[in-house]
Amino acid sequence: MTRTLIVMLKEPRAGRVKTRLGRDIGMPAAARWFRHQTRQLLRRIADPRWQVVLAVAPDHAGLQSRVWPAHLARLPQGDGDLGDRMARMLRATAPGPSCVIGGDIPGVTPAHITRAFRALGDHDAVFGPAPDGGYWLIGLKHPARQRHGFLQHVRWSTEHALADSRASLPGQRIATVDTLRDVDTADDLP
Question: Rounded to 10 degrees, what is the CA torsion of 131, 136, 140, 146?
């Protein structure tokens, strides 16, 4: 079974990406930070143990973008809130365990990803929590078997995002791996 690591990315344009960070440091600076961060991240997480797939937005511009490596497979995120888009990306992957991360986690390494995939060996789902109540990673052992309601009614960008997401997986065996910080504001910058 193929392991798939999906990286959710927006085209790094000022005012379109990292807008909360942009309110602190300026929209052009936030876009430059995100472009640099995602380039480093994609180099760092490349590993033969999993396939990296980019989930891009906006759909057309993301598919055509020259910002990201051309050799990586790309899928359009499509419409809906973050939960709709992550669920869609998980369903679109090859059979086997899949994890989703964002492009704004400076501390993620292959060791973190390895622990998440290892947790899916005896769990149905895995989360990598963030200190703010959200999460930097979600993974499913069998993404094609998502139940109705998966990632629905989640209060995104709040301290309830992780708890709400876990609640959308009733009866599932859920593992938790490393806590990592994502970058939302200037205070989160490394």
Answer: 90
Rounded to 5°, angle at Cα 111 from 106 and 52:
75
Chain position carrying tokens 């060791």: 111
Instruction: Give the CA diameter of the chain.
Output: 44
- Residue 174 and residue 124 in contact, taking contact as beta carbons nearer than 8 Å: yes
Total domains in the fold of the chain: 1
Report yes or no: 136 and 166 within 8 Å, Cβ to Cβ. Answer: no
For residue 21, the cross-strand partners are: none
Closest CA to 144 of 79, 111, 75, 98: 98
Q: Which two tokens stand for residue 68?
A: 């990201």
CATH number at residue 41: 3.90.550.10
* Type of residue at 186: A
List pLDDT tens digits, range 171-185.
Answer: 999 999 999 999 999
Report pLDDT digits (tens) over 99-110.
Answer: 999 999 999 999
Q: Which of 121, 119, 125, 122 is nearest to 174 (CA)?
A: 125
pTM above 0.90, yes or no: yes
Domain that holds residue 55: 4-188
